[in-house]
Design a protein that fits this description.
Oligomer: heterodimer
Shape of chain B: globular
Helix content of chain B: 40-55%
Order of helices and strands of chain A: HHHHHHHHH
CATH topology of chain A: MetI-like fold
Order of helices and strands of chain B: HEHHEHEHEHEHEHEHEEHHHEH
Radius of gyration of chain A: 20 Å
Largest sheet of chain B: 10 strands, mixed
Number of helices of chain A: 9
CATH architecture of the largest domain in chain B: 3-Layer(aba) Sandwich
Number of domains of chain B: 2
Radius of gyration of chain B: 23 Å
Strand content of chain A: under 5%
Strand content of chain B: 15-25%
CATH class of the largest domain in chain B: Alpha Beta
Helix content of chain A: over 70%
Number of strands of chain A: 0
CATH topology of the largest domain in chain B: D-Maltodextrin-Binding Protein, domain 2
Structural class of chain A: mainly alpha
Distance between the termini of chain A: 40 Å
Chain lengths: ~210, ~300
Amino acid sequence: MEFIFETSEIVLRSIFVSGLATILASAWSLPLAFLLLISESKIGRILQDIFNSLVSIPTVVLGLLLYLIFSRSGPLGVFSLLYTPCIISIGQAVLITPLMISFLTSSLGKVKETVWETAIALGASKFQASITVLKEGCVQLVRSILVGFNRAIGELGVALMVGGNIRGYTRVMTTAIALEVSKGNFDLAITLGVVLLITTLAITVMVRLLGAR
Amino acid sequence: MKHYKLFMLIIFIAALIITSTCSCPLILRENITVLRVSTTTSLYATGLLDMLADKFKEKHSNVVIQFIAVGSGEALKKAAMGDVDAVLVHAPSLERKYISEGTIGEGTIFAYNYFVIVGPKEDPAGVKCLSPEEAMVKIFNACEKGVAKFISRGDRSGTHVRELMLWDMVGLNPKGKTWYIETGSGMSETLMVANEYRAYTLSDIGTFLKFKNKLNELTVLVDRGDILINIYSGYVVLSSKNIGLAEEFIEFLVSSEAQEAIGNYGLEEYGQPLFYPIVGSNSTMIKNMWNVLSSESS
């Protein structure tokens, strides 16, 4: 019974932490991606390239950087955020930002190609045209959030480095799986792995259904 | 154009508000003291520490103990960075270094057990029941002949430090040899690699016993010899804000209640204890061994 309680707590914490990370990342990724898309300046395109290449940043490298920054002897140590669920959310948000931006700029780019010129030609202002792009690209927005969430919840390096895998506090599904493997409880590790897959699958299906409607 | 800028501004403000409101409840801390302890994986993975922490909490209801399980090297590094209040480690030579740097105070030995040299059941190097030093030489020679392999942790953990010390004591250097495989991961992963390669490796007895049923190819070959003693010490991190509480926790580890729990831990499941309590043992001898081990260069 206690086992089920602890497992479900870990699952819920994972969803909460990564969900918060996705909200944070969306909060700055969506407007930023849109801004990059609308602006046709050189800097915008360079920024897009930078974000595209940052998509594949190793999670442990990001985790280490965040650790050094948020460690008590680091520049942001005064906030004492290290080894809290909050810092995992922040780290995961940073992690999925390039992914979301690059996903958005490429998918919304296609929408923009078809809609933008038509809207302008029909006499829409730039603002109205932007709204149209967002309306047409609503499904893409939702999908980018979904992709970001799935990347965040399946990520290990950041959660382990800055979260510390503390029982009942910062232990999420991926770090719990790593721990159970090192304890030799392969059965429990597999169980958690299946739960992780089912969770992401369920959310994928749910959002897909929402998007399709 | 004006509208468009306004639109962007609104989105940015909304983003800011969402960001701050979401992080607020997490930043506000509850009214409890958090004691952070970085610890070696071999202690944590056996489940001993969670059990001890629960006992400690019975007396200190407003204290939450958070364990961060990493290798001994990383655990001490985290202490030097000021991110933890106490450390529980088993790498005497590293410990001495951090004591002399003023990161941690004087240590308290609270438990010990033995490292064991494990290897394939066929034992191609023929080291069964030899002394640790003789065994290392034989393993080296067998590996050079190509009939055996050696798996090293390679992660500056307490076990790795001890393994390097053993090589150093017999005057051999396996670094760079093709048969010397460094996994760079925890004890359990390293044992699994050794099992797959049918290779020799150095392990703490606790982790080996815990994993025994998954390691069909491996068996304990050498388990005698003072040099294989594995000493676990607790330290207070001097830069900690909760230094009083950290001291209390370390003292608790050598209290009769905790010591009894350590001695009985795993007795039922594995037929022998995973750790031996320091109280009731020959503590002077162990302290002397610690001194010998800590003055070895790592």
